[in-house]
Amino acid sequence: MKKVLLLLSVLFLTISYGQEVKQIPQINVNGEGKVKVIPDQATIAVTVETKGNNAKDVKKQNDQKIEAVLKFIKKMNLAPADFKTQRVALNPQYDYEKKKHNYNATQTIEILLRDLSKYDELMEGLVDEGINRINTVIFQSSKLAQYQTEARKLAMKEAKLKAEDYVSVLGQKVGRAMTISDNSQTFYPQPVYSAMKTMERSDADAPRETLALGEINITANVSVSFILE
After folding, report:
1. What is the pLDDT of residues 130-179, one digit of tens each?
2. How far is 45 from 146, CA to CA, in rounded Å?
3. CATH superfamily of 23-39+142-195+213-229
4. Model-level pTM?
5. 136 Cβ partners below 8 Å, 6+ apart?
6. Which of 163-168's residues contact partners 24+ apart within 8 Å by CB, and which partners?
């Protein structure tokens, strides 16, 4: 009985390997969807940095400046959820020439500014209150999810259009999608706010303009495999 079962198993495997694997005709294409948007908000990271010989004094001075900065931010009527302490550090630094330790205290605040018309007022006030390092200013859209959805749909439409272009000369048609891969990466330009300086104006009361917002691109990239009919 065992010999019979073994013989049947070998016969089945031989038949299986002898059969040709049926290939499914398909086409692989990439698609990109891009939506251009004028940013309406910004995430700003700023730092107070203080240096000195005494760790306690350096930390105290830094805390006092941060306290003034936070009071100013609150006066700007920003929601409490829109600003937070991102990083606090106190580090010793050895001066090899003088052969002694100095100390460097830093505190970083991250601010979400939802009204860009307040940008100049906010940045100038932060510097006046003690901010001496502006890390990043990232412009973005409050409707990011909506624009990402639009970009994805455009990417899929472009992928299908590409596939149809390729197979149109072959007398074939594009069928259903076999696989879809999302290759999107979110990217925002990060301009560094240079300095609180603008060209002198004859009218001192004229509004200041230090921003050139331009547009940001919300982009989606996909790879799609379509069956050919």
Report:
1. 999 999 999 999 999 999 999 999 999 999 999 999 999 888 999 999 99
2. 25
3. Protein of unknown function (DUF541), domain 1 (3.30.110.170)
4. 0.70
5. 43, 44, 45, 190, 192
6. 163/27, 163/29, 163/224, 163/226, 166/27, 166/29, 167/27, 167/228
